[in-house]
UniProtKB/TrEMBL annotation:
This is Alpha/beta hydrolase. Gene3D superfamilies: alpha/beta hydrolase (3.40.50.1820). It comes from Pedobacter yonginense. One of its GO terms (molecular function) is hydrolase activity. GO terms for cellular component: membrane. Residues 22-241 form the AB hydrolase-1 domain. PANTHER family: HYDROLASE, PUTATIVE (AFU_ORTHOLOGUE AFUA_2G14860)-RELATED, MONOACYLGLYCEROL LIPASE. Signal peptide: none annotated. InterPro entries: AB_hydrolase_1, AB_hydrolase_fold, AB_hydrolase_sf.
Amino acid sequence: MTYQIIEEDGFKFIEAGKGETLVLLHGLMGELSNWELVIEHFKDRYHVVVPILPIYELPILTLGVKALSRYVHRFLKYKNYNQVVLIGNSLGGHVGLVFTVAHQEFVKALVLTGSSGLYENAFGGSFPRRESYDYIKEKVEFTFYDPATATKELVDDVFKTVNDRSRVIRILTMAKSAIRHNMSKELSKITIPVSLIWGKNDKVTPPEVAEEFHQLLPNSELNWVDKCGHAPMMEHPDVFNNYLEKFLDRILLK
């Protein structure tokens, strides 16, 4: 990443640009670099902020999607942000949903891509062969339609993370919290505009998950990305950015 991580009052984040604020929320194993091409595309017209979710810092007994939502609330209040567009991938989308249900007054619109919150087919309950680099490589490749998207650098980062005992315990705790926290009965409360940008070949949160979100969110649109897995902003950034740009133009510039 070419952006410097800012540390202020216990928060870590990167930011670029000026204008309406877009807050990007990364996934459970996500890196800030996952959003790099989104930041590059929008920083000339928007204020783009990516908080680092404290998955490895929060007390493990309270770790869960609600704890991360409370963290986002504290961060937005600290930065005095209001009426932001929340954009979340995977777990980040789930956190965005929980936050929006609780604090819809902070959110002008919501964008979900490969979001958990209804159903996900992730790593499962454990990493049975986490010492095997090839096994982890296979699991990372599972995330994408094109296995080549799982670069050596990305696989190296995941391999290092899951072989850190403290971190892997937190990852599994967080994953179980996300699976337990099904939001189907709460989604009707979200009345702001929602854009679903979904990989047509997502194996982690399959297409039927996007269709269910679309059905349950009263003010939503559904956009498909062909030949794409769980992270459209990484695998097909031009298509993702085009969908996002049209959505932002519609809701912010009208």
